[in-house]
Design goal:
There is one protein chain. This protein is an alpha+beta fold and 183 residues long. It folds into 2 domains: 38-114 and 168-182, Chitinase A, domain 3, CATH 3.10.50; 118-162, Thrombin, subunit H (Beta Barrel), CATH 2.40.10. 20% of the residues lie in helices and 30% in strands. Strands 1, 2, 3, 4 and 9 form a 5-stranded antiparallel β-sheet that branches. A hairpin with a 3-residue loop joins strand 7 (148-154) and strand 8 (158-162). It is elongated and about 60 Å long.
Length: 183
Amino acid sequence: MTICTGFSKKIILLSILSLSIFGMMWCTSKKIVVKWNTVTVDYVGKLQDGTVFDTSIESVAKDNGKYMSGRDYSQGLSFEVGAGQMIAGFDKGVEGMKVGETKTITLAPKDAYGERDTGKLLTVPKDQITWADQYEVGTQVMSQNGQIFKVYKVEDKDIIFDANPELAGKTLIFDITVKSVKK
């Protein structure tokens, strides 16, 4: 039976620490995405039926009627991994990827924009709404505090607004390519 002395314990701890530092340096030199890195990606976001709802790639945006003039498609999308800047599943999905790698992730609603919540339907009497007669189902309206609502239903005396995110309740598919990683 061998008994570790204080000196040998220190050697073992230093060895473990050295291996850990080497491992972190190896991951950094291989440009592997880890939490708190700033990553730049190109992506194509699709619904389950293949409909593109958003992309950072100009040609894909043009081909799918999602092109926005003024948007700089040459840069890709940059964000800090783990900082809550992205939907949870997208954020988690890039961890472990390498520069140049492409992968497809499928996100259930809970990992994207959440389930649709009927509690986010707001009924407002038409007589309290300016230009109520101009609202149609699907019209987007911004409240005074900047929240976006969509007209969900128009009734005789009321308009029902939906405050759910447009992609709530939907499974989303993302094709992601890592362009760069920075500490």
